[in-house]
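Bug #77: duplicate submission created two jobs. Keeping one. Sequence:
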Amino acid sequence: VIGKLHLVNRVSADTTNAGVGDAKLTIDTVGNVGIGTTSPGHLLHVYAGDGVAVNSYTALVQNAEATAGDNFGLKVQAGKNSSDVTMEVSSAAGSSYMRVRGDGNVGIGTTSPGAKLDIVGSSLGIRVKKANLSDVLRVYTQGSGVFVNNGDFHVEDNVGIGTTSPTAKLHVAGTGLFTGLVSGITPVAAA
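Kept job's structure:
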């Protein structure tokens, strides 16, 4: 075959001549394979036009191996450097939601993550939650930052307990109980 190879599948009741527009699979002259497109732009280009994959995924990778430890899903193997893109999830318009770089850094809301997990966005915070329980950890970015380092909890701004507007490094609104040694505190009568 010289040029593109188009595989066409028509219903038997259709007696019209099949054309390129009826192609289900196309292999172009450089070896790109298109499913749902006659102009594949990548080695494998799967395209579901409007109305083709309604309430369904465009692709499914399924392994039905029953032996424990022998069932593997999808592996993406690409990239070695921070400039390489191993995987990207984006909107239909092409806006990047999540990117995994070749150095292993993952970015959500950023295409250039500077850490193993780098989250950038206009909505505040990260939430870690165990199923059927309340939140285990919430981190919000209203102040300069909240860090956990070697089991120590560090806050680079004021901390409020019982208040959302702390005015000191530690601001407790309500009563407190200390069961260990506390030093350097001058008691102040409640207002």
